[in-house]
Design goal:
388 residues, alpha/beta, TIM Barrel, 6-stranded parallel beta sheet, 3-stranded parallel beta sheet, 11 strands
């Protein structure tokens, strides 16, 4: 999640226009119309190729907040974060977009430290609000109840592993992988991990914006010098449970320390490479990305408006990361509906992203790897490591 300017259910100023309801025309016709409305030069053959691949293989968004379901029922604690409120009908619209764009599954993310966050005058998120004992625990449970409500929606099914995800895709349902952004709900104890496992949590992002008991975050001064002693315990327990360890928002030292002890591939669910012309703490150096790739992991490319302005820019970031770590270590991680000035702001645009990549030379097997195959491999590898 990134807070500077999250997408609202209605397109904000500068956001890409999208159809308001599904079309009865062939999907490639709607794709071409959408491409024209965005000023993109995407040919029909590339779009037909994208649609064929989306039908045949699961496309996965490693990190998303569809309809901001995690904010339903939340009591606002600070006017600065009021823009995160979930609007009525927002999840239904997000689900329609997923189905229309051919997305098979997403990492539906709770935000464990949400009640600690405020918006800074510079436009970033910071943990600055005092907390009552167990406040983050209880709010995470509220979010889990909201996840239970949205997964009961027709056409959505909770999935916990690669086999269930493939089965959901085959049945035409959207797979919902339950993930938690920030291990803050654990409060420095492993007790809460059993509850998370019982609810089917597939992945935990160790750190978010709040400096926590697990490891250092990218956007704050270090307090642990990397992964803490508790963080090491947590990584080992997550590996034993077959859960995916997500290092988005974690400092380079935290990533390096985690890679040194992990028994399974790691992910950075949503980030991208640091460009030469812009320094931003949420982005990655090539060395940072390579540490995750070296263990067989995947980086989900994030369509953030820090440097990107359109889908062409987003495709450029995917290709740039492929050049650095190899196509087998690149995926998609949109942070959908809670992202900063997103260059890719609606799942109906997913076929366009794949078509642009196809026109820029990606082979079918490479497209399948990036759009979900690599993340499926990590899910399976984490499950295998738990029994090894």
């Amino acid at each position: 999640m990134n807070g500077e300017s999250a997408r609202s259910p209605s397109p904000a100023s500068g956001a890409s226009p999208v159809p308001s309801s599904p079309t009865v025309a062939p999907p490639e016709d709607a794709d071409l119309a959408l491409a024209r409305s965005l000023g993109l030069d995407v040919d029909g053959d590339a779009l037909r190729r994208a649609r064929r691949l989306l039908a045949a293989q699961p496309a996965i968004d490693a990190h998303c907040h569809p309809g901001r379901f995690f904010m339903r029922g939340a009591q606002m604690w600070d006017p600065s974060v009021a823009f995160f409120a979930a609007e009525d009908g927002a999840f239904a619209r997000a689900l329609a977009d997923m189905r229309a764009g051919g997305l098979a599954a997403g990492g539906f993310a709770l935000v464990s430290d949400m009640r600690s966050l405020t918006l800074t005058p510079q436009g970033g998120l910071k943990a600055a609000r005092p907390l009552a004992p167990d406040e983050l625990v209880e709010d995470t449970r509220r979010q889990q109840r909201e996840f239970d409500a949205v997964r009961a929606t027709a056409g959505v099914v909770q999935v916990r592993d690669a086999a269930q995800l493939r089965a959901a895709h085959a049945s035409g349902q959207v797979g919902a992988l339950l993930t938690i952004e920030g291990g803050d709900f654990l409060e420095g104890r492993l007790d809460g991990l059993d509850e998370a496992r019982a609810r089917g949590v597939a992945s935990i992002t160790l750190c978010h914006y709040r400096p926590n008991e697990i490891g250092d975050v990218q956007t704050e001064a270090p307090v642990h010098g990397g992964l803490s002693a508790f963080g090491r315990e947590l990584v080992r327990e997550m590996n034993a449970a077959g859960m995916v360890v997500d290092l988005a928002h974690a400092s380079f030292d935290t990533v390096r320390d985690t890679a040194a002890i992990a028994r399974a591939p790691l992910v950075i669910s949503h980030s991208h490479l640091q460009p030469a012309e812009v320094a931003h703490p949420r982005l990655l150096s090539p060395e940072h990305a390579r540490v995750v790739a070296a263990g067989g992991g995947v980086v989900g490319v994030w369509p953030a408006g820090i440097v990107q302005r359109n889908l062409g820019d987003y495709a450029n970031e995917i290709l740039r990361l492929v050049d650095v770590v190899g196509v087998e270590h690149v995926g998609i991680g949109t942070d959908m509906d809670a992202n900063y000035l997103p260059s890719f702001d609606n799942y109906r645009q997913l076929p366009l992203v794949l078509a642009i990549l196809a026109q820029r030379g990606m082979a079918d097997d490479e497209l399948v790897a990036v759009m979900g195959g690599n993340f499926l491999r990590v899910l399976q590898a984490c499950a295998d490591a738990s029994t090894g």
